[in-house]
Amino acid sequence: MQKFSIGIIGGAGYTGGELLRILLNHPAADITFVHSRSDAGRPVWTAHPDLLGETDMHFTEDFSAPVDVFFLCVGHGEATKFLNEAHIGAATKIIDLSQDFRLLSNAQHNERKFVYGLPELNREQIKAAISIANPGCFATAIQLGLLPLAKAGLLEGVYTTGITGATGAGQSLAATSHFSWRAANIGAYKTLSHQHLQEIGQSLSQLQPAKNVDLSFVPWRGDFTRGIFTSSTLHCTAKRETLVELFLDYYKTHPFVHINQEAIYLKQVVNTNKCVVQLEKVGSKLVVHSAIDNLTKGASGQAVQNMNLMLGLPEDCGLKLKPSAF
Length: 326
Description:
Layout: E1 4-9, H1 14-23, E2 29-35, H2 44-47, E3 59-60, E4 69-72, H3 78-85, E5 93-96, E6 108-109, E7 112-116, H4 119-127, E8 131-133, H5 137-151, E9 157-164, H6 179-182, E10 187-188, H7 197-207, E11 214-221, E12 228-235, H8 240-250, E13 257-259, E14 275-282, E15 285-292, H9 296-310
Parallel strand pairs: 1-2, 1-4, 2-3, 4-5, 5-8, 7-8, 9-11, 13-14
Antiparallel strand pairs: 6-7, 9-12, 10-11, 12-15, 14-15
């Protein structure tokens, strides 16, 4: 299999570490450098102790070596700053994991046009793209539960709740990411104002342009490490069996989304690039549950999925990951 050179910018954080775990075992990936200003000169395993014995690479501040693909695992706003300061060849592919270029209004940066990287929505555009804006974690989970309904024109008002693990808050410490706050505790945050609402609305409008979707979202912080579980409630008169067939048909060519007829749970997806979806119907109310791992399908795994599509590789290459199960 042909090898492609990879550069990672911001390799010391959660998404950078998860990206390393995947790419070190990817048959087509050759990691050229792992950039970090804060950890430059140190072995990669000092920031990611589980990688001791997996690689002898060191973090570096130098990203001048030519690569086929740049992954930007930086904070929101930092991707734009990096691209303004760096001189990256026009043919080099970029996959940005921040939110800087997800919205159509911000998708153009100089000569680069960023494609929204949700493969289950934009697979063909991703294959032809040079630059990808990787979706947000909550946005991914919610959208994968709603896309088939939007394509069928069945969305109007949607009320969604969702809970995420501590890694969703990033590696920098805050009062609500400390163990003493998280342990045996949950809490709502950014009620009805979460930053992922705009990209979700943008995607749903792409499939259902004639009808506006009123989406209300209440996110929760959970007392676990990783994973996202969302539940979207809406009015729908169609029979559950009809809706299940609608979902099965929509996702029949997408390898990472699975429709489950029984109750789903978080451990089915933790440490994988999968999304599992379950539909429940009571009277005229439909509830769509969806679960993903926020660090894989919600971030680094989806970024590699996008890389595979951009490079003409099998979509699931390097992403057949083991669920934790217990």
